[in-house]
Amino acid sequence: MPEDAAYYIEGVRAGNRKAISKTITLIESALSGHQELVYTVLDSLLPYTGNAVRLGITGVPGVGKSTFIETLGMRLIEKGHRVAILAVDPSSAKSGGSILGDKTRMEKLAAHEQAFVRPSPSGGALGGVARKTRETMTVLEAADYDVVMVETVGVGQSEFSVASMVDFFLVLLIAGAGDELQGIKRGIIELADAMAVNKADGENAVRAEKTRKDYENALHLMAPRSDGWQPPVLACSALEMTGIDEIWDTVLAHRRKMEASGELFRKRSRQARDWFDFLVEEGLKEWFYGLSEVKSLLPDLTRRLELGDTTAMAAARQLLELVTHEYERKQT
Amino acid sequence: MAEHPEKPRWIDLARKELKDKPVESLEKQTPEGITTHPLYTAENLEGIDFVNSLPGISPFVRGPRATMYTVRPWTIRQYAGFSTARESNEFYKRNLAAGQKGLSVAFDLATHRGYDSDHPRVIGDVGKAGVPVDTVEDMKILFDEIPLDKMTVSMTMNGAVLPVMAAYIVAAEEQGVDQEKLAGTIQNDILKEYLTRNTYIYPPDPSMRIVSDIIGYCSKHMPKFNTVSISGYHMMEAGADSVLQTAFTLADGLEYVRAALNAGLEIDAFAPRLSFFFGVGMNFFMEIAMLRAARYLWADLMDQFNPQDPRSKMLRTHVQTSGWSLTQQDPYNNIIRTTLECLAAVLGGTQSLHTNAFDEAVSLPTDVSARIARNTQLIVQEESRVTNTVDPLGGSYYVEWLTDQIVKEVRKVINEVEEMGGMAKAIVEGMPKMRIEEAAARRQARIDQGIDPVIGVNKYPVEEETEVDVREISDSVRDEQINWVNRIREERDDAEVRRCLEALTQCAESGGNLLEACIKAIRARATVGDVTEAMEKVFGRYVATTQCISGVYAGEYQDDEIIKTIRKRVDDFAEKHGRRPRILLTKMGQDGHDRGVKVVATAYADLGFDVDLSPMFQTPAEAAKMAVENDVHVVGVSSLAGAHKILVPQMIEELKKQGGEDVLVVVGGIVPPVDYDFLYNAGVAKVFGPGSMVTDSANQVLNALEQNA
Fold it and tell me: Is A97's Cβ below 8 Å from some Cβ in B?
């Protein structure tokens, strides 16, 4: 890995594929030396970020996310866009390894000059996905990709973090996979800016339409959103290329509306705030639990707590005083 | 029947010989999940309805013909084709003079995928794994001095089946042979291409139409021609056990029958011309029982369509010995393996047979190795006297019981497929492919641990390398072929070609028999590529969805010390470099054999690597782009079709051009040892030939990475 920040900054700005790729690796790296470099690089790139349409896409496995992204992505390239795709694949809890197979289903995008497709392993740590993807997204914006799509598997925590970093969150569905909400958590439906029933083709078309209506009805029962946007439920076929333009038009309509009302700016500010809060909290925790005094006191404290020798409140206070006392001492 | 009266006594004796271990300790678990016992008796045959059946009579367990080999032995049909039509033709003629009885044509991968030899996606493939056919002129040369009214010809073609079949018919016509006299087999089994091998062109629906158009055309015009060779061979080679091979093959067969019925054909008009193609490996009695069980099941499955002609229920099959069972290490062992597999196929009652040459683990057969392969069959056929009796193993307690077990297990899988709505639907869901890949990963893990012994590989390895001669395909073949097809393009009547191709596109769009339309275009000297494109306008080109399994490889490990050690090394690497070792596994050119790459992918992920998989059929530039964009440490190229010497150096060049000069390159697959130095000089760090253990390769990749860092 090059150690010169200018290599990354200039490379990304010049749209150099290798430099972009290395910058992403840098962001994803767990080495503390790399992290220092990341701050410098991201700071310098900051003025060039924020211009892309940030699109998050989720759905249960088998819904056809990758094929959908391939179709939409190629369509956008035809229209003159430069498209970046970030995909997060689960790492095995046992081995830590992963299979990053997204590009096998994005054959045309993978080979296209105007596309940058980067799958990343989710890694072990909680918040890992968000930590990597959010920063990576801004790097791609700085490299002049004007549409950035983030793909996430529709199970678990990852879609909450993805929804909190994009302008538009699209949930893909398939026809008739159970009457209930297809294993997608209700909370995720609430995050959706639009839903689309994929694979609405051939003998599936009728069932797809029924599913679409079901969701439409379900969405009407939800409380209206504060931003005034009513999430539509659409149908599409990545295979037959139908409904794809309509989805993109929806994304653009949403953007126009949110820009006009100032909501886009507010949303991004809110996201930045949330992200900031999250990072501070995470940072504090990591630092605090890493302190040798904390490490040595903690086991005994928890043991006493479990035995009922002390209360949770007192135990927490005792632990926190390890740093608060020190701080107060410095103040005076 | 009750237990054998002396069974308790036998158990006592056995226990003594076992030094008091229970007899149950001798039970063995087969890859199919069948538990075999050390001894079988008459009681094991109870309730098996086919035990005392007769050959030539339904359900045909003992053979499709009444007299079997006692009157006419199986056809020795060696699969071959390489370089140019001229060279292949000469090779065929030499073999026929030396005792081979039928021809079996191997086409190159460019032809399989419907590309002319000058297409940019086939630079490494022309003439490599088969013979290139661009126009009918190639087909005419291929069969020069081989009278097509007398010689049965088998053609392994699925993707570009229409132009190739058309070229064969027109070549015969220009030889003066009427098409109704043509006898032989076209593989025309597209469904299995989506499972393994991947030499499809169009999506499943139009591909099924092509199959039934060919069945329809032949039932009218070519009554002696086998219109589909429903193939399990490739599934076995991809890792399927005998039960999966049989189940998916028969389920494919059902799908073709239904397609033809839906196209309006009568069952007896086409079913007798469906033939099968099975692969036979080293599990000797299992292979024999599999062929017997397959015949029983097919007869049974076909009953639902009420055929009147008994031949409609008769499973006739070609067999090929397993290429996968061959090893690069100690290669003469392969002659012995092939002999055993040959005998199993014969005892199972095959109608024709290909025996592999011993050097096929690393390259195309030479004249010498091809002769040994052919003689293997001649010796079994003419010296061993196994042909004197029909189904000599009929009545064997063990073989009959095993046959019945396979029947039962296969039924379960077929029912599962039927519940999904048939094989075409199951394929779209990805179920059969996943099953096969799981079986492959488990098998690899068993070999890597030494549970399944492979002599010369994981047991009794030899130190010194055996040097074997290699048939090398000259790089000039592609240039020659391009000049030749260009000459034909210049001399043909372009307006006529255009008219024929437009008519073909029209036919694809609005109906009509596609083979008929193709024959006209091919006669006018349209190329295989022209014809393919004319239909592609309507059908599109199919892109497979790749799914990958995980956890299966490591899950098969009982003693996982080896796994732990590698995982530790991987974790150490991650600690030091800030991320896990990341490897891109890619396949370039038209080589669609993806079993190896899938097994390696799942195994490496289980060992802790981050594994990127590329789409199939990459160009060197595309593979390099992906390596750079994903910032991998290593690219692993899987090459099984002889294109490594062209495509690998090109990819390394591309890596340099795109800034990926620091990326390590390793190659795995069918690479003859004589090519290793060439690849090392081109910048390859490691080459892993057939029989390499995955754990061993992972360690070597880690070594190379540590050196590279």
Answer: yes
